[in-house]
Amino acid sequence: MPQDLGTQIANADGEVVFTWAVDGEAVVGQHRVELVGVLSGAVDDTFQVVARSSLAATGADLGSLIPFGLLILIAGAALTIATRRDGVASHDA
Fold first, then answer.
1. CA triplet 50, 51, 56: central angle to 5 degrees?
2. DSSP 8-state assignment for residue 18
């Protein structure tokens, strides 16, 4: 079923942009878009409508690494404090 996307004016380079939403009722498969210019004539191209699926999972679940990270942070702080105490003790001697 044809859908009128309205009218846009091309820029100085002859480029024009149309944006539209593909609703849930759109037929899955190949579709054609045709642009007709007063001076430039007609041009057409195709695009694919694909079935909606759940979004792919991105990132990582780092919840199990938080205790390990805290342990390393505490160990680093303890080593820093111990090193400074040894440095102060040897400096005083």
1. 95
2. -
Work out the mean pLDDT of the chain and round it to a whole number: 81
Q: Give the Cβ contact number of residue 26 at 10 Å.
A: 14
Confidence of residue 40 (pLDDT cuts 50, 70, 90): confident
> What is the token pair recorded at 66?
């938080």
Q: What six digits make up the tokens of 43?
A: 């041009």
- In the 8-state DSSP scheme, what is residue 63? G
Amino acid 38: pLDDT: 82
Could you identify the residue written with the tokens 């642009």?
35
CA 93 to chain centre: 59
Cα gap 58→70, rounded to integer Å: 24
Q: Is the pLDDT of residue 64 over 80?
A: no
- Alpha-carbon gap, residue 41 to 36, rounded angstroms: 5
